Amino acid sequence: MVDFVCSDSVLIEVKALPSLGTIEAAQAMNYLRASGQQRGLILNFGAPSLQYRRIVWDTARGAAGSAGRPLPRPAHEGPTP
């Protein structure tokens, strides 16, 4: 189940894992598909520093009959120099 919905448009998943992997991204994608939303954010507080991953569901490709894919964003740790 989704942890938070922000502004009725962004699904937020909160995790406490050593690192984020493909399973967490796939879970967020399933939540986006099921809800009809396009944007999701995974926050991981279990790593030594905050990790996050933004997930975007392309509804146009999904509606066209293709499987659709998230636009991958790398997990980030801490501020970017």
Distance between the termini: 34 Å
Number of domains: 1
Q: Let me know the number of strands.
A: 5
Put simply, the count of helices is: 2
Q: What is the string of SSEs from the N terminus onward?
A: EEHEEHE
> Which range best describes the helical content: under 10%, 10-25%, 25-40%, 40-55%, 55-70% or over 70%?
10-25%
Mean pLDDT: 77
Low-confidence stretches: 63-72
The outline comes out as globular
Percent range for β-strand residues: 25-35%
User: Which structural class matches the secondary elements?
Assistant: alpha+beta
Major beta-sheet overview? 5 strands, mixed
Rounded to the nearest angstrom, the radius of gyration is 13 Å
Describe, in plain words, how this protein is organized in 3D.
- This protein has 81 residues and is α+β, with helices and mostly antiparallel strands.
- It has one domain (4-76).
- 23% of the residues lie in helices and 28% in strands.
- It is built from 2 helices and 5 strands.
- It has helices at residues 22-35, 59-63; strands at 4-6, 10-15, 39-44, 51-56, 76-77.
- Strands 1-2-3-4-5 form a 5-stranded mixed beta sheet, with helices on one face.
- A hairpin with a 3-residue loop joins strand 1 (4-6) and strand 2.
- The protein is globular, with a radius of gyration of 13 Å.
